[in-house]
């Protein structure tokens, strides 16, 4: 073989003794990664003339044969976890043996996350991902995902080669934004470059967590300029379960029982809305300013003032008319009964 010859030239005699065993037998591939129950096969080659060559294994062993330089070990369905096939040749003065490295793997039967009762905001909880019957656990990597992003990974420092049950825990402290957040776990067998690409992977069904949280306003004070007509106060908050509302304000006598998140009011002033649920409460202040304070006070003074003035003027006018007609009668020599009657008729007509 060209490569072996090359090695002989490169290696000095001290090196030769070490490489000799390797040269006796070459197994391809040198490491085999097989799924449990799948077909496994490897070739053993020797450059030597020998007295016998064979494979020894708990499955698929091949009895010693002669006059071959090449022998294939094959198992149609590999169901032995700790199989260690060995290729051997018998030479004149020694037996040469080479082991085939085999990793038998199996994805989990199931991968599941415990269900989680509703959590209160900022409380700690643990999620558990149960991995059932996976092998070999030393190549297993369990990764937790929140929505689409990995949050934490776990490896298992165990040398068991047969299937085991393992679990991995994730501590969570959900915020209000995490309500309905999706969590899931993934089991990946990172079997290295000799293993299947991409690495065998299994994912759990997702769980959606439920988070309860107290009412909160994005802005707990709102200053509103009063316009024409009614003003809508919007007390929308974030709370789970949804809030119930109570309202307070000078102009709200008898209206405090309003349970809605918005309220229509007619007068400027301060109004307070209290949102509450089982986990807490929050207040929001609405300050409604008059559009133009001086202008409204002016109206407030002027309107009743004008009314009063009109009434007074009207009153004076009647009185003036009465005294005016009476005065002219005084100037006449003698008020006739008919004139008095006329005067009375005029009064009546003026009054109408
Ligand atoms: C073993 O050798 C045979 C013949 O050269 C080839 O067809 C086969 O793919 C080889 N198997 C492996 C696992 O290398
Ligand atoms: C794995 O376990 C071995 C022996 O139990 C220990 O020496 C080694 O430090 C561990 N490795 C890790 C990464 O925990
Ligand atoms: C893993 O768990 C399953 C179900 O609980 C059980 O049937 C099985 O025997 C367990 N396997 C091991 C290796 O403990
Ligand atoms: C909260 O409301 C006040 C008054 O309406 C306003 O000036 C402020 O910009 C608001 N802040 C936010 C964060 O919306
Ligand atoms: C109240 O404000 C919220 C945002 O804070 C908005 O989504 C909602 O549509 C508003 N409701 C009304 C009745 O204006
Ligand atoms: C309304 O509330 C503001 C802020 O708390 C306060 O400065 C103001 O005096 C209040 N106005 C009335 C009429 O209560």
Automatic annotation (TrEMBL):
Signal peptide residues on this chain, from the entry's feature table: 1-21
UniProt key word Transmembrane: yes
Transmembrane regions: 295-318
GO molecular function terms listed in the Swiss-Prot or TrEMBL record: integrin binding
GO BP, sorted A to Z: cell adhesion
Residue span of region Disordered: 328-352
SUPFAM superfamilies reported for this sequence: Immunoglobulin
Keyword annotations from UniProtKB, A to Z: Membrane, Signal, Transmembrane, Transmembrane helix
InterPro entries: ICAM_N, ICAM_VCAM, Ig-like_dom, Ig-like_dom_sf, Ig-like_fold, Ig_I-set, Ig_sub, Ig_sub2
Pfam families for the chain: I-set (PF07679), ICAM_N (PF03921)
Protein name per its UniProtKB record: Ig-like domain-containing protein
Taxonomic lineage from the root: Eukaryota, Metazoa, Chordata, Craniata, Vertebrata
């Amino acid at each position: 073989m060209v490569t072996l010859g090359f090695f002989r030239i490169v290696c000095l005699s001290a090196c030769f003794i070490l490489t000799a065993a390797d040269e006796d037998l070459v197994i391809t591939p040198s490491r085999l990664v097989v799924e449990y129950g799948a077909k496994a096969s490897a070739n053993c080659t020797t450059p030597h003339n020998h007295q016998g060559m064979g494979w020894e294994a708990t499955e698929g062993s091949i009895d010693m044969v002669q006059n071959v330089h090449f022998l294939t070990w094959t198992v149609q369905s590999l169901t032995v976890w700790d199989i260690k096939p060995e290729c051997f040749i018998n030479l004149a003065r020694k037996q040469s043996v080479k082991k085939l490295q085999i990793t038998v793997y199996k994805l989990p039967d199931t991968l599941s996350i415990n269900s989680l009762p509703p959590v209160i905001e900022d409380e700690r909880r643990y999620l558990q991902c149960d991995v059932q019957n996976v092998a070999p656990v030393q190549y297993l990597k369990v990764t937790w995902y929140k929505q689409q992003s990995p949050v934490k990974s776990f490896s298992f420092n165990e040398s068991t080669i047969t299937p085991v049950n393992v679990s991995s825990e994730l501590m969570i402290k959900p915020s209000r934004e995490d309500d309905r957040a999706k969590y899931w776990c993934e089991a990946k067998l990172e079997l290295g470059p000799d293993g299947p690409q991409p690495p065998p992977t299994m994912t759990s069904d997702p769980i959606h967590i439920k988070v309860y949280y107290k009412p909160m306003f994005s802005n707990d004070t709102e200053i509103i300029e009063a316009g024409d007509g009614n003003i809508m106060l919007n007390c929308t908050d974030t709370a789970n379960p949804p809030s119930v509302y109570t309202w307070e304000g000078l102009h709200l006598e008898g209206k405090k029982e309003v349970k809605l998140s918005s309220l229509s009011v007619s007068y400027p002033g301060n109004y307070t809305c209290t949102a509450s649920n089982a986990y807490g409460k929050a207040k929001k202040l609405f300050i409604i300013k008059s559009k133009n304070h001086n202008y409204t006070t002016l109206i407030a003074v002027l309107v009743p003032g004008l009314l009063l003035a009109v009434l007074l003027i009207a009153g004076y006018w009647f009185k003036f008319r009465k005294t005016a007609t009476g005065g002219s009668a005084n100037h006449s020599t003698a008020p006739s009964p008919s004139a008095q009657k006329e005067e009375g008729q005029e009064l009546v007509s003026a009054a109408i």
